């Protein structure tokens, strides 16, 4: 068998039941002549010394844990463990062990607690002779009993034998009676031994023992034993807490005594697991698996029993929604439902579906709508937790309910608007509740979970509903302090409350959460959010936050604009150009000065994206309006690159225009045509034409009378309101932008708040085919050389020189 080396740590279990690290090395499985069998060898990675040499015995119980651990016992009190660095190595060694023992590698333990040979031997012996022989249950023998219980934990077979012995003749009940005697005598030594005994019995992991220990007669004595940890100077007071502090509240009287007993038992056992018992180590995690299962099945049984009692749940809902119910009583009812939903998470998917459908039929969502709008913080917090369970279970069920509401109620009390209001009005300085509610809203408006086969129109219908009834509430804090009150169409009470939001960290956090949600909408709700942004001039309002003293909020605003530009949608681009919306971004960049921080990098990345993606309309707008302010920034080549793109496009438009105006002067011979036809198969048609024109007719030969020609055409077409390219003294052409008077002010770097929609147009007045400015660019090889020269000559970053 070939060696398979893997890096491992070797552990051994000491007398205190703690794992000692024996060193790190590489494990292999090979035949050892001295041991007469396949063995596990671990050699130290430091000096190659032998850390472990263990024969794989056919009868040894090996156990695989957590994908990277293999644990086994070699002698009565000698336990070993290998902790692998990689899962692959653990799997390979595990397969070798299983191969030697003839076991299936899919198993996590290679031997049953009692193997077949032992079972056959037990059948031949008297009925109880195979059990562990327990000392008499007496005070003087407690130390002996404790040592016995502790010693068997390492061996699955001996644990099984001890469990069978403890269940016979009521031994556990006798031990717990001794606890009462020890406590009356204040026998601390005996109490410490009983702690070790009870803790060890719990680690035996036997459901039959748990049934005895957690019965009404015994459970408080079990808790009492666990109070006397030898490591503590003074015992804990767990029983006092369970009997006096922890009170069981019946929001509606439970008539079923079995159900009441099950609830008490589950709470106490959960307390033992979570509070009393120490957190198990990675090697002990499976020791309490049956205890976890015991709690799990108790919860399933409780949920099933409550769900089947229709009268009980109906009464709970009736009192929850009754206006006459006292606040304290309603708080208890909501907390009951919160625990009820938490217990339901233990159900199998099919049973959980039935559970939530039962709650939906009983009216859980209308009830939540009422309690989430209450002033009691505890009630609202519990209601939010219940709402999160429902959204996680079925977003479609919640959406279906809220879309039916406008027919029955006002906009300001819709369930989603109530949720948004709770998010905005969260009083927690850390906005923990707001963050949770924002996540729920995001789940509800996510188109990815709206693709249900039963309702193919859900996405369109719900998004239309959300933008009609809810989006104005969500954006109210953003719009409240910037919108003109005389022109504001938003008259919700929450908007008036938002107008006085203080400029503090909590408000900045809230606005950042809203911006995160809006950024998500830009990416996933293309049509609806685009219409809303343009109708409300939302981007302009958001960019006001670039001036915030909270840098994270300015970054959120910038991220929102970056996501819009990332859509590469010309409608968005024209909206940005018309409103001169780059101005606050560029001002922030210049005001940031020479600081190299995240804000600086994010703004540079925005312009780099525009350059790399070659967004022509934005490039022309940036260079025409802001290049004087940006040309001083030379620590990156982004803005020089934008200028280069702009000049290339300008030259290309000029050549294209002249080729159309003077076709006869650009007539080529047959050889040229043949060459160009051959090039057409390899290059873009538009770029070919531009290159051919450039080769055949240099710009210096353009006639001087072109300007006069254009002036004459303007006179003839005086009704045309477009501006046309005019020739400059250098022979090139200057392009002007045609939009409204308000937008025209943007050329001087001022925002155009009242601008009407317009477009960026470059159009010569020709009788034949018009040519627009939106033409693909060509990357000339000279560009890279120019950029390299700029990088070599660029000085360090300088502060803002002016705009």
UniProtKB/TrEMBL annotation:
A Gene Ontology annotation in the biological process aspect, one of them, is:
DNA damage response
What's a GO cellular component annotated to this UniProt protein? nucleoplasm
User: What is this protein's function per UniProt?
Assistant: Regulatory subunit of serine/threonine-protein phosphatase 4.
What family is this protein classified in? Belongs to the SMEK family.
Q: What is this protein called?
A: Serine/threonine-protein phosphatase 4 regulatory subunit 3
Which residues are in the Serine/threonine-protein phosphatase 4 regulatory subunit 3-like central domain? 144-648
Please report the organism this UniProt entry assigns to the protein. Oncorhynchus mykiss (Rainbow trout)
What InterPro entries has UniProt attached to this entry?
ARM-like, ARM-type_fold, EVH1_PP4R3, P4R3-like_central_dom, PH-like_dom_sf, PP4R3-like
Biased composition range(s): Polar residues: 724-739
| Region annotated Disordered, chain positions | 678-803
Q: Where is the composition biased (Basic and acidic residues)?
A: 710-723
Compositional bias of type Acidic residues: which residue ranges? 678-691, 780-792
Q: Which GO terms describe its molecular function?
A: protein phosphatase activator activity
What domain of life is recorded for the organism? Eukaryota
List each copy of the PP4R3 EVH1-like domain by range. 5-101
């Amino acid at each position: 068998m070939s060696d398979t080396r893997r890096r491992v740590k070797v552990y051994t279990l000491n007398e205190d039941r703690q794992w000692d690290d024996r060193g790190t090395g590489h494990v292999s499985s090979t035949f050892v002549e001295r041991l007469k069998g396949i063995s596990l060898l671990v050699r130290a990675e430091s000096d190659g010394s032998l850390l472990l040499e263990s024969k794989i015995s056919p009868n040894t119980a090996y156990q695989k844990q957590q994908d990277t651990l293999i644990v086994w016992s070699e002698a009565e009190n000698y336990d070993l463990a290998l902790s692998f660095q990689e899962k692959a190595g653990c799997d390979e060694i595990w397969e070798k062990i299983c191969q030697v023992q003839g076991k299936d590698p899919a198993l996590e333990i290679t031997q049953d607690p009692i193997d077949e040979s032992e079972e056959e031997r037990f059948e031949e012996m008297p009925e109880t002779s195979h059990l562990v022989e327990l000392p008499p249950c007496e005070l003087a023998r407690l130390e002996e009993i404790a040592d016995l219980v502790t010693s068997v934990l390492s061996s699955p077979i001996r644990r099984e034998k001890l469990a069978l012995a403890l269940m016979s003749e009521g031994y556990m009940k006798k031990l717990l009676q001794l606890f009462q005697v020890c406590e009356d005598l204040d026998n601390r030594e005996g109490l410490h031994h009983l702690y070790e005994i009870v803790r060890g019995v719990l680690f035996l992991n036997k459901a039959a023992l748990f049934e005895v220990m957690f019965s009404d007669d015994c459970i408080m004595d079990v808790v009492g034993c666990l109070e006397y940890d030898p490591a503590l100077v003074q015992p804990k007071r767990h029983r006092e807490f369970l009997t006096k502090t922890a009170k069981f509240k019946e929001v509606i009287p439970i008539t079923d005594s079995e159900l009441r007993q099950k609830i008490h038992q589950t709470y106490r056992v959960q307390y033992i697991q979570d509070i009393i018992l120490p957190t198990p180590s990675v090697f002990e995690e499976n020791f309490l698996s049956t205890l976890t299962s015991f709690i799990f099945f108790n919860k399933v049984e409780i949920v099933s029993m409550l769900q089947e009692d229709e009268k009980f749940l109906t009464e709970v809902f009736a009192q929850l929604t009754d206006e006459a119910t006292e606040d304290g009583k309603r708080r208890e009812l909501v907390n009951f439902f919160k625990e009820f939903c938490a217990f339901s998470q233990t159900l199998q998917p099919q049973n959980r579906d039935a559970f939530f459908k039962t709650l939906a039929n009983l009216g859980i969502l209308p009830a939540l709508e009422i309690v989430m709008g209450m002033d009691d913080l505890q009630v609202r917090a519990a209601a939010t937790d219940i709402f999160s369970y429902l959204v996680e279970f079925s977003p479609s069920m919640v959406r279906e309910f809220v879309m039916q509401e406008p027919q029955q109620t006002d906009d300001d009390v819709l369930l989603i608007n109530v949720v948004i209001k709770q998010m905005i009005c969260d009083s927690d300085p850390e906005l923990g509740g707001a963050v949770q509610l924002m996540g729920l809203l995001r789940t509800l408006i996510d188109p990815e979970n709206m693709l249900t086969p039963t309702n193919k129109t859900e996405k369109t219908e719900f998004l239309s509903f959300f933008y009609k009834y809810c989006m104005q509430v969500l954006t109210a804090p953003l719009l409240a302090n910037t919108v003109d009150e005389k022109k504001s169409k938003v008259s919700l009470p929450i908007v008036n409350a938002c107008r006085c939001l203080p400029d503090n960290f909590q408000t900045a956090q809230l606005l950042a959460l809203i911006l995160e949600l809006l950024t998500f909408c830009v990416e996933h709700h293309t049509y609806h959010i685009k219409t809303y942004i343009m109708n409300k001039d939302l981007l302009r309002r958001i960019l006001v936050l670039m001036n915030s003293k909270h840098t994270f909020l300015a970054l959120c605003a910038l991220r929102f604009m970056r996501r819009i530009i990332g859509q590469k949608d010309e409608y968005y681009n024209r909206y940005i150009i018309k409103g001169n919306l780059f101005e606050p971004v560029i001002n922030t960049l210049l005001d940031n000065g020479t600081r190299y921080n995240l804000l600086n990098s994010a703004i540079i990345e925005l312009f780099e994206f525009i350059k790399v993606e070659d967004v022509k309309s934005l490039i022309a707008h940036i260079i025409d309006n802001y290049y004087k302010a940006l040309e001083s920034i030379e620590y990156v080549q982004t803005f020089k690159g934008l200028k280069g793109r702009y000049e290339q496009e300008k030259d290309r438009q000029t050549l294209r225009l002249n080729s159309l105006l003077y076709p006869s002067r650009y007539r080529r011979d047959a050889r040229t045509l043949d060459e160009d036809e051959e090039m057409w198969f390899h290059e873009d048609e538009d770029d070919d034409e531009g290159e051919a024109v450039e080769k055949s007719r240099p710009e210096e030969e353009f006639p001087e009378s072109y300007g006069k020609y254009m002036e004459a055409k303007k006179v003839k077409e005086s009704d045309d309101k477009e501006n046309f390219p005019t020739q400059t003294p250098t022979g090139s052409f200057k392009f002007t932008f045609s939009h409204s008077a308000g937008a025209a002010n943007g050329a001087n770097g001022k925002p155009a708040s009242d601008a009407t929609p317009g477009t960026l147009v470059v159009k010569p007045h020709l009788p034949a085919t018009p040519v627009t400015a939106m033409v693909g660019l060509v990357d000339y090889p000279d560009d890279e050389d120019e950029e390299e020269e700029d990088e070599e000559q660029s000085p360090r970053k300088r502060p803002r020189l002016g705009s």
